[in-house]
Write a structure and sequence with these properties.
The protein is an alpha/beta fold. The protein has 14 helices and nine strands. The strands form two sheets. The protein has a six-stranded parallel beta sheet, sandwiched between helices. A three-stranded antiparallel beta sheet has the order 5-4-6, with helices on one face. Strand 7, helix 12 and strand 8 form a beta-alpha-beta unit. Helix 8 crosses helix 10 and helix 9 runs parallel beside helix 13. The relative contact order is 0.17.
């Protein structure tokens, strides 16, 4: 029997003998996970289009942890703010009741600069290695600008805004503004958790204080947001009858309505759609689409690393061992 090019590529992955594969040939649970990894790689090969849905878990997997208390990430970049304002995490600092705009914008500037200046996390690099050669689109609830460091910004829908932009807090007009230069100037001016009064960014139209363009009760659904949404909808419509792989990474219970629920709905309704769900604690798939879904309760960093190695035929050191990753499946 003659093998197709795709079949030969898949066999080459299996016969590569990579360290990642050898490490996973242990428990029945890890062998089952290995089957899922191979299934996902096959689906990626076969897909006409890949729609990526990225939520906070894909960034947290790199150690970019904005939620948990007193993490190494928090202690490295925000320990001074934590000490001044008696807060244990970036999340608490974001919603802290500051006494002045000078205090609040000092934290916003630091937070924005960290997001913009961090290098691309390994999860994003490995994800791009997996799907970068495919016809893809990204929808993300993340505001940390990580996707844009690796993927084509013209193919990203930042549905909850992102750190690259600012808006008028009164939403007095439609325009949003690039924030990088302003944020770096503000960050350089911080003294004891404050910026000078004259440096508080203000709207060029009405003079009100500016606001980061990230989801909040005053988030501005601007024409820029509408353009992003229209491009994403057009992409979906264009591929509705093709082999589409929906790939959701790190989507938890905070905002599943933006990524996970629509992906499940489209997988159910589209004849040739398939769905991959990857996250720590990911439950089994819905029975109605179980034959079209791979649900992976596993560490995102290590799983993407393994898949990227299998696709490229390389082995990379420096992350946690695969046996350590797949032990998560046995413990959860």
């Amino acid at each position: 029997m003659r093998l197709t090019a795709d079949a030969k590529a898949r066999n080459a992955r299996v016969l590569d003998g990579s360290e990642a594969m050898r490490a996973m040939n242990g428990t029945p649970e890890s062998q089952e996970m290995m089957k899922k990894v191979e299934q996902v790689l096959e689906w990626i090969d076969e897909a006409d289009a890949v729609v990526i849905g990225g939520a906070s878990g894909i960034s947290t997997a790199n150690g970019f942890d904005y939620y948990n208390h007193h993490t190494p990430f928090f202690n490295k970049y925000f320990a001074d703010f934590g000490k001044i304002y008696h807060e244990p995490s970036c999340w608490q600092l974001l919603y802290h009741h500051y006494n002045s705009d000078e205090e609040r914008w000092a934290y916003m500037a630091r937070n924005g600069c960290v997001m913009l200046d961090l290098p691309a996390g390994q999860t994003y690099l490995d994800l791009h290695a997996l799907v970068g050669d495919k016809d893809y689109y990204v929808i993300t609830t993340n505001q940390d600008a990580q996707f844009a460091k690796v993927f084509d910004p013209e193919r990203i829908f930042t549905i909850q805004g992102d750190a690259h932009w600012m808006q008028c807090s009164r939403r007095c007009h439609d325009k949003i503004y690039r924030s990088e230069e302003t944020l770096h100037k503000l960050n350089a001016s911080i003294v004891h958790g404050k910026i000078p009064t004259e440096m508080v960014p203000r709207c060029p139209v009405c003079g009100e204080v500016m606001e980061p363009w990230v989801k909040s009760f005053i988030f501005h659904y601007s024409s820029y947001w509408d353009e992003q949404a229209d491009k994403y909808k057009a992409y979906l419509k264009e591929h509705i009858n093709q082999k589409v792989l929906f790939f959701a990474l790190g989507v938890g219970n905070m905002t599943p309505e933006f990524i996970k629920h629509p992906f499940i709905n489209m997988t159910y309704n589209w004849p040739n759609a398939r769905l991959v769900l990857l996250n720590i604690g990911e439950p089994d798939p819905m029975k109605e689409i179980a034959d079209k879904t791979v649900a992976m309760n596993a560490d995102i960093l290590e799983t993407l690393k393994t898949m990227a190695e299998m696709k490229t035929g390389t082995t990379r050191r420096g992350t946690r061992s695969n046996e350590q990753v797949y032990r998560n499946c046995e413990e959860n």
